[in-house]
């Protein structure tokens, strides 16, 4: 599930690494309590590589449009999210026009509709957020640590930010359309001439709107300079255009076919913007009893078909509408926020040292051994790259908020986000928040460990 741009850069810059040996960590893996909410997410990620102008995702009605199958007829009202990630490449290499990404909203009603932009961010790979190498664990209090545009947009939205290029709201007159986004993906001056843009927005509308994401090459001014397409030009593409190409690989059906699993990329409306979970011993419990000394338990994160880590739980958001050649579910839950509360309880008679971490085990559906498998030397592929917020009371009883940027490779056990010295009978609430980063590869786990007692 690594993005095309990242795969290319890895191939150019990463030397081969020797094979790693597997290590099995005995630990109980539990399904994650809670569920996704019902907030619809406009999810535009297919085709990832866009070489021709066209419609990326349209939830407009098909009536009166030249290619009815390019329109999914899904109205939004109230809270909804917009996620878009696409890549442009000069094809042929001398064609260095910028590809513009347009997101248009239409008000089909007879009254004005106000759309509030609650949080929003949109960044390019170059120059905004290049894929630089970072340590596996970095404090990120100010939000300046990131690698890749997906990492940067989720970092901003986690902090409640609205990038300055976005207004606080737009008002769409009756029967009219307005651009929510109209930004370029430039390739000129880049080697190779390849660039990507990731966008994430949280919106609230007081009336019905339709949305579409579109791709169009920059228009040319009389002096030869580039200009952004106008709303009329975008509307014409929406009404008369077809789906953008080249199309991505068609996914394999979710009911096993015996063939290798192709998840596909998402183009449609997914159900769920946030997963809230209270991690406790039982459905009616109030506390999460820490493991015995030297023991570990974990909860699956972003588990998916073929990668449920023995829990049988599929966290991938279901699709409310989609194109038939795109993903059946929003595998990876890109841009979805996980809000996890762990009311830890030391029910032992001794003080215990407890840690909470995120880990990236090898993907399995059924565990072949009693525990999770890791590499003693993690593989070269980065599978998680993003910022995690942890809130807790430290050993002196002071409230702490930490932002930690993680870079985890395939099979990497990870380091503790927080370590607590819990006296006998101590209760401590730990809250873990992150938006699943768009350039990550699931699944991960949230792990609670009690340090073994020294003899």
TrEMBL record:
Q: Which domain of life is it from?
A: Bacteria
Stretch list, region Disordered: 241-260
Q: Which InterPro entries match?
A: DUF3370 (IPR021801)
Q: What is this protein called?
A: DUF3370 domain-containing protein
Which species does the entry assign this protein to? Mojavia pulchra JT2-VF2
């Amino acid at each position: 599930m690594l993005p095309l741009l990242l795969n290319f850069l890895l191939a150019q810059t990463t030397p081969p690494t020797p094979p790693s040996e597997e290590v099995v960590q005995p630990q109980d893996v539990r399904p994650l309590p809670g569920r996704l909410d019902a907030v619809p997410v406009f999810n535009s990620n297919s085709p990832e590589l866009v070489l021709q102008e066209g419609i990326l995702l349209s939830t407009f009605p098909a009536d009166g449009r030249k290619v009815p199958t390019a329109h999914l007829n899904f109205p939004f009202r109230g809270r909804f999210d917009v996620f878009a990630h696409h890549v442009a490449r000069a094809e042929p290499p001398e064609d260095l026009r910028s590809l513009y990404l347009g997101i248009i909203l239409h008000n089909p009603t007879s009254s004005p509709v106000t759309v509030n932009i609650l949080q929003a961010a949109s960044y390019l790979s170059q120059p905004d957020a290049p894929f630089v190498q970072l340590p596996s664990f970095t404090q990120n209090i100010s939000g300046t640590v990131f690698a890749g545009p997906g990492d940067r947009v989720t970092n901003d939205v986690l902090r409640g930010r609205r990038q300055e290029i976005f207004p606080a709201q737009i008002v769409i007159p009756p029967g009219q359309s307005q651009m929510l986004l109209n930004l370029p993906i430039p390739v000129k001056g880049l080697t190779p001439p390849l660039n990507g843009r990731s966008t994430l927005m949280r919106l609230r509308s007081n009336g019905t709107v339709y949305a579409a994401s579109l791709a169009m090459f920059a228009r040319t001014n009389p002096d030869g300079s580039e200009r952004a397409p106008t709303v009329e030009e975008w509307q014409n593409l929406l009404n008369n255009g077809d789906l953008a190409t080249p199309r991505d690989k068609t996914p394999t059906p979710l009911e096993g076919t015996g063939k290798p699993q192709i998840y596909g990329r998402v183009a449609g409306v997914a159900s769920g913007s946030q997963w809230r979970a209270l991690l406790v011993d039982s459905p009616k419990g109030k506390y999460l009893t820490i493991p015995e000394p030297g023991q570990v338990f974990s909860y699956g994160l972003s588990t998916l078909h073929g990668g449920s880590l023995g829990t049988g739980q599929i966290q991938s958001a279901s699709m409310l509408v989609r194109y038939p050649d795109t993903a059946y579910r929003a595998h990876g839950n890109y841009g979805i926020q996980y809000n996890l509360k762990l009311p830890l309880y030391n029910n032992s008679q001794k003080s215990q040292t407890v840690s909470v971490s995120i880990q990236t085990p090898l993907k399995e559906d059924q565990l072949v051994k009693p525990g999770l498998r890791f590499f003693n030397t993690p593989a070269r592929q980065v599978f998680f790259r993003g910022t995690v917020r942890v809130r807790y009371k430290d050993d002196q009883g002071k409230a702490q908020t930490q932002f930690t940027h993680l870079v985890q490779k395939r099979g990497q056990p990870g380091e503790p986000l927080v370590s607590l010295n819990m006296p006998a009978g101590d209760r401590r609430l730990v809250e873990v928040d992150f938006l699943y980063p768009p350039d990550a590869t699931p699944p991960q786990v949230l792990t609670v460990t009690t340090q073994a007692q020294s003899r």
